[in-house]
Amino acid sequence: MKSWITPRNAFVAALLAILVLLPVYAALTGNTFMMTLFTRIVILAIAAVSLNLIMGFGGMVSFGHAAYLGIGGYVVGILAKEGINAGLVQWPLALLLSGLFALAVGALSLRTRGVYFIMITLAFAQVVYYIANGLDRYGGDDGLTIQRRSEFGGLVNLSNRTAFYYLCLAFLLATVYLVWRIVNSRFGLVIQGARSNERRMRAIGFPTFRYKLVCFVIAGVLCGLSGVLLANHTNFISPALMHWTRSGDLIVMAVLGGMGTVFGPVIGAVALLVLEETLPHVIGLASYLVTGKEVAAAKEYWQLILGPMLLLIVLYARGGIDGLMAGTRRG
Amino acid sequence: MLYLIEQCLNGIQLGMLLFLLAAGLTLIFGIMDLVNLAHGSLYMLGAYFAATFITLTDSFLAGLGLGLVATLVAGMFMEVIAIRPLYGRDHLDHVLGTFGLLIFFNELVRLIWGPEGRTISLPPEMLTAVQVVPGIYYPLYRLIIILATLSVAALLYILVMRTRVGMLIRAGASNREMVGALGVNIKLLYTLVFGLGAALAGFAGMMQAPISFVQIGMGENILILAFVVIIIGGIGSIRGAFVAAVIVGLIDTMGRAFLPDAVRLFLSYSAGSSLGPALSSMLIYALMAGVLIFRPEGLFPAVGK
After folding, report:
1. A56-66 pLDDT, tens digit each
2. DSSP H helical segments within B175-217, as ranges?
3. Residue B96: which of A111, A244, A252 has the nearest Cβ?
4. CB-CB under 8 Å, B35 with A111
5. Which of A11, A243, A311, B265 is buried most deeply by CB count within 10 Å?
6. Which residues of chain B make contact with A108, given a CB cutoff of 8 A?
7. Cα of A266 vs its chain's centroid, Å
8. Of A216, A251, A265, A245, the residue nearest A98 (C-alpha)
9. What b-and-e string marks burial along A2-33, b requiring 16 or more CB atoms within 10 Å of the CB?
């Protein structure tokens, strides 16, 4: 019997506790910035977890995952602009369209592999990006402000900061649970088997293409959900939502946290976005220690550190943060 | 008709630019098997170097020359420090690692040159237009780009197909262990190839700079186009890159020039102005998807791969 109290599980539990208790802290200190930041983190973590399902477990490196963020967001934005605010219309439609897009992209791109797969998923995401740029009625490349968040009658009020945060957190936990169930099911084992040796899986009679396609669609729908939440969070959508560098960010989150582990991407999302917020201060502090006074300009250049850090993680810590804690190399 | 010829020339000019980027990318990909997202950063660096050296030397040509050397050195430096450990790794590692480099270079440029962009102004004698066909005047500088790139393409062809270094490069592409076992310094060869690719990208950046604008992130969108070019042309094939670059350049330019009017036939005027460019960008990606589905190896697969 394996002990459940490992450094890794303790860390995950601590992180969960922080995520759950954050609104309490924010309410006590009146720190609304923390709430905004962590709502964003939780939402993007959903996207990272969904990407990890296909990338970490299925070996399908999608470089166009931000497209689903965009589709989810634009469905909410466009319907809101046309006066349809009902969440029960907006959300299912967004998920449906994300799923259909994933079905089309997957059906075509899963015929290729390796770097071709990376590039073809990127290409499809670029197509959506340019479509959004061409939607003049909905802001074109300037983007579109969403006047009212999705409405669910009296059920839940998304404009309430705390309620919205807990809703997002609930969706994140549900997503993690769902992915965990998928990965440990027969379906998930086939997917992982196809990653290790597709030919062998086919030889013992699994139509791997269909399995992978279904997996790809599930990931697309989950990421579409993340896009729906993101649009409701920022009250704004623009093509920048699905610029290809955003897809890169999602990959970074999944790998940073630990690819191929269910909870890793959540850690990665928290780590990357918290790092983005704190690195400027760390550099400011370092400049204070070195020169004796805080160099304001030094703070701006935090990405100088982030870039090489990514490279170092790729080179020396492939298991990501999760892998470091588990003490084994994964991925 | 005149408009058509002019747009054709514009398309070829864009295609030439894409070829410069794609040639480096496809060399690096074909030989080192490396996906380099930071290739667009070298394009950007080239433009910034040229802008600086033109200001310093007060001469357009000297500035370009010095800028080219600087980009070459920067590329080789980058290869030794950051790229070398990535060889032989998973493609996902390449994507991530070079994505980190891309972030780093954007920030480095901001640190050195500041957040505001630069412009490169052409010497007055290049600002004229010449008559290419009776009745059609075309900017001289754009013609210079086309001719300069064509000569670079020819030089590249001679270098790769007719010289000893080129022979080693081709040998390295088909079997690197064997080339290493025969006593060739494969590390040095890789560094040289990377530097060559960097110089080509930098050259593209500095040639384009006088037409557009030197700014941070200028290489990001064109890099994706260059990737599309090498996928269509066949990874590792310079000839494929050349043909695909011209095709993509023509589609993009023609689409932008004529699709808005075509859309206006069916929809409103404003719909044409907004949908046209979007449609032409989509056409390129649709072409790439088509190539990947029906000819996954590209139009001109590299020999021996």
Report:
1. 999 999 999 99
2. 176-181, 186-208
3. A252
4. no
5. A311
6. 289, 292-293
7. 8
8. A216
9. eeeeeebeebbeeeeeebeebbeebeeeeeee
Tokens of A132: 């959004």
B286 to chain A nearest CA, in Å? Answer: 8
The answer to whether the CB atoms of B100 and A310 lie below 8 A apart is yes
Residue B40 and residue B28: Cα distance in Å, rounded? 13
Is the pLDDT assigned to residue A2 strictly greater than 70?
Answer: no
Query: Which of A244, A292, A273, A4 has the alpha carbon at shortest distance from A121?
Result: A244
pLDDT 10s per residue in chain B (305 long)?
778 888 898 999 999 999 999 999 988 888 888 889 899 999 999 999 999 999 999 888 999 999 999 999 999 999 999 998 888 888 888 888 998 999 899 889 988 988 888 888 888 888 888 887 787 788 888 899 999 999 999 999 898 888 988 888 888 877 878 888 888 888 888 899 999 999 999 999 999 988 888 888 888 888 888 988 988 988 878 888 999 999 999 998 888 888 877 877 777 777 677 677 778 878 888 888 788 778 878 888 766 44
Cβ distance of B282 and A55 shorter than 8 Å: no
8 Å CB contact of B86 and A315: yes
Nearest to A221 by CA among A169, A159, A179: A179
Q: Do B292 and A112 touch (CB under 8 A)?
A: yes
Phi, psi of B130 (to 5 degrees): -115, 160
- Per DSSP, B301 falls in state P
Among A50, A267, A319, CA closest to A179: A50
- For residue B46, give both structure tokens: 């080239």
* Residues in chain A, total: 331
Whether A114 and B91 lie within 8 Å, measured CB to CB: yes
Closest-CA residue of chain B to A117: B292
User: What is residue B292's predicted lDDT score, i.e. its pLDDT?
Assistant: 78
R_g (Cα) of chain A, nearest Å: 20
CA dihedral A155→A159→A164→A168, nearest 10 degrees, is 100
**List of chain A residues whose C-beta atoms are within 8 Å of the C-beta of residue B22:** none
Tens digit of pLDDT for each residue in A230-244?
Answer: 999 999 999 988 888
CA distance A268 to A55: 14
Task: Show residues of chain B in contact with A131, CB under 8 Å.
Answer: 278, 282
In chain A, where the domains are located? 7-243
Residue of B nearest to A304 (CA): B104
Cβ-Cβ contacts under 8 Å, B101 against chain A = 307, 311
* Contact flag A255-B96 (C-beta cutoff 8 Å): yes
Considering only CB atoms, A127 lies closest to which of B107, B231, B285, namely: B285
Could you give the ipTM of this predicted complex?
Answer: 0.82
